[in-house]
Design brief:
3-methyladenine DNA Glycosylase, Chain A; 29% strand; globular; eight-stranded antiparallel sheet; alpha+beta; 16% helix
Length: 197
């Protein structure tokens, strides 16, 4: 178990160079870390959704490369950050080979380190709701468009190893109009930190 002041080991590049549907469940239990000017923020990933390059109308890359989604087409192991509703950022882990257009949306994390910074960023104190949802997670971690396209193997934003949850549940993705029938949402069963049961 990792805690305050822990040393984190980066995931190998090969971890990211696979299909998003394979990477998404394996991200559960891994540790998302952001080294900020105010201190280090870290949390255990407990919920993730895969977005595929083929036959997935819910994926931002479904209609090809645009200025907004260009980071999705990078080689796996980079961040794809976008803005929704003009106010909330969402953080995705790019997967696969360069040009494929796949990513995993990180929907929720269990606070692990820098909890006071998360609370200040969010204006909330309850640890169960600090990072329970993609917009909340980004605000708590201080993730914004400045991190779009950054390498997740160099920092200041990176993912490290962690313990796999004892049980992983699968469901349809949340908030989609198209492609919502696909079972591509993975979460740590029983975790109080997920965005919704």
């Amino acid at each position: 178990m990792q805690g305050e002041g822990a040393e984190f080991k980066l995931l190998p590049e090969d971890f990211y160079l696979r299909d998003a549907a394979r990477v998404a469940p394996e991200l559960l239990g891994k540790v998302l870390v952001h080294e900020t000017g105010a201190g280090r923020i870290a949390g255990t990933i407990v919920e993730a959704e895969a977005y595929l390059s083929r036959d997935d109308p819910g994926c931002h890359a479904a209609r090809g490369k645009t200025k907004r989604n260009a980071s999705m087409f990078f080689r796996g192991g980079r961040a794809y950050v976008y803005l929704i509703y003009g106010m909330y950022h969402c953080f995705n882990v790019v997967t696969g080979r360069e040009g494929e257009g796949e990513a995993v949306l990180i929907r929720a994390a269990a606070p692990l380190e820098g909890v006071s910074l998360m609370a200040a960023n969010r204006g909330r104190r309850d640890p169960r709701t600090l990072c329970s949802g993609p917009g909340r997670l980004c605000r708590a971690f201080g993730i914004d468009l400045a991190l779009n396209g950054c390498s997740l193997r160099e920092g200041p934003l990176f993912i490290a190893g962690g313990e796999k949850p004892s049980r992983i549940a699968v469901s349809p993705r949340i908030g989609l109009n198209r492609g919502r029938e696909k079972l591509l949402r993975f979460y740590a069963a029983g975790s109080p930190y997920i965005s919704r049961p």
